[in-house]
Amino acid sequence: MFTPTTLRLPRTLPSTLTRRLSTLPRTPRRSLKHHLQPLQTPQRRSLSTLQKWTLGLKQARRDIWRKNPILLPLALFSAATATAIFTYIAYVEYTRVGPQYHKFPPPVAEALRTAVYYTEVDLSPPKALQAYKEALRIGIEMGMHPFSDEVVGIKIQVAMMLERAGLAKAAVEVLERTKGEIMGFVEGKDRGEGVIGVKIEKEEGKEKRKEVEEFEKQQRDKVLKKAVGIEMKLAELYSSDYIQDEKKAEAAQVAAVELCLKELHRRQSLGLPVGGGLEADNTEGWLNVTEIATALTDLAGRYTAQENYELSIPLQMRALDLLHTEEGDAPTCKQVVLLNSVAGCMAGQAQKPIRAEDPKKAKEQLFDAAEKWAQKALDVAARIQPPIRDEECDTSCVAATFNLGWLAEFQGKAKEAERLYGEAKSLSQGLGFEQGVSMADAALKRLTKN
C-alpha cells in the first residue's frame, strides 16, 4: 500500500539532476536557431483544365476498354472501314467521275449526274430520259453548240441507256435521228446559226463569226467520225435478238463503209492525212487508219459469212492496203489476220462455180493465189516479235498453216497436207488452242480414211 510518505522524493535528487544536466554538450546558437524554425505545412498546386481533361481521358480510356472489351474494337473497325470507303469514294469522284463533267456547265453537269444515276445505279428509263432531256435543254439555253462533242455525246448516251434497258427499237430511233442531224450538219444543211437559239449579231463583228466557223470546221471531222460509229452500232442493234433485221444491219454497215471511203477520197484530193484530223498530229478528229480498216473488215466479215466472197475480198484488200501504207516496215498482227482472211476467201471462192472461159484454169489460179496469201501471212508473222506479237497473231498462224494443208489436200497432195496438218496441230498444242487441235485431228483422220 502506497502512502504519501513513500511518494516523496529524496532531497538530494534536484542537485544530482542539475549536475548531470550541466555535463551535457551545448548546442550552438546558430544551430539552435536553425532547428527551432516553425514547421510549415506543404502547399498543394491546383490542376489546370488541360491536365484535368487529360486525366479524365486516361481514366475514361481504362474504363471503356474494361467495360466494352468486344463492342469497342468492333466500333473502331467500323469507323476505320467507313473512313476507307468514304476516302475511296472521294478518290473515285475526283479522279474518274469529276473529269467526265468538267467540260459541262454546272447546271448541265448536275442534270447529267441524275441521269447517270438512273442509268448506272438504279436503272429507270423514264427518269433517266427526263434528266437527259433537261441536260440538253439547259445546255442549249446556255449556248452549247448543238454539234459539240458534249451535246452529241449526251444523245448517244441516251441510246446506250435505252439499249441497256432492253429498249432496242427506241435506241435505234434515237441513233437514226442523231445520225440524220449529223449528216445535215456535215453536208451544210444545218448551218447558219452557230448555236441553236443564239444568233450572231452583226455588231459582234467578223471575228466572232470566224471563230464559230473555225469551230464548226473542226467539229465536222469529229461528228463524221461519230456518224460512222453510229452506223456500226445500228448494224449491231439490227442484228440483235431484239430486232433480227439482217437487211437493215447490212445496209448500216454499207453506209459506214461508204462514209469512210467518201471521206478518204475527199481528204486525198485536198492533200489532208488519210487518218486523223485536219492536221497530221490531230488524232482526235477523223477516224485513224485502224478504225477505217475495222469498218471495212466488219462488212467483209458479213459478206464472208454469206459466202459472198467476190464482195468480201475487195474490202479486205482495201483494208490491207491502208494498214500496209500506215505501218510500213513494222507490220502488226492485223495484217496477218487480213492476209489469212484473204487466203480463206480465195479458197472459198475457188469451190464455187466460176463464170469464165476456162473455169478449171480460173479455179487453179484461185488456189495458187490462196496458197501465196496464206504463205505471206506466215512470212509477215515471222517478222513480228513480242510485245507486238500477241495471241491473235499466233492463232492466225495456226489458221494459215491449216489452210495451206487444206489447199494441199484439195489438190491431191496428201503427204504435204499431212505435214501441214501436223504442224497446225503442234502449234495449237503449244498455244493451248483446243479448236485448232480438234480441227487438225479431224483433218488427219480424214486423210487416213482416204
From TrEMBL:
GO terms for cellular component: i-AAA complex. It comes from the Eukaryota. Residues 24-44 are annotated as: Disordered. SUPFAM superfamilies: TPR-like. Gene3D superfamilies: Tetratricopeptide repeat domain. CDD domains: Mgr3-like. The chain crosses the membrane at residues 70-91. One of its GO terms (biological process) is protein quality control for misfolded or incompletely synthesized proteins. Residues 27-36 have a biased composition (Basic residues). Keywords: Membrane, Transmembrane, Transmembrane helix. GO terms for molecular function: misfolded protein binding. PANTHER family: MITOCHONDRIAL INNER MEMBRANE I-AAA PROTEASE SUPERCOMPLEX SUBUNIT MGR3-RELATED (PTHR28142). This is TPR domain protein. It comes from Aspergillus transmontanensis.
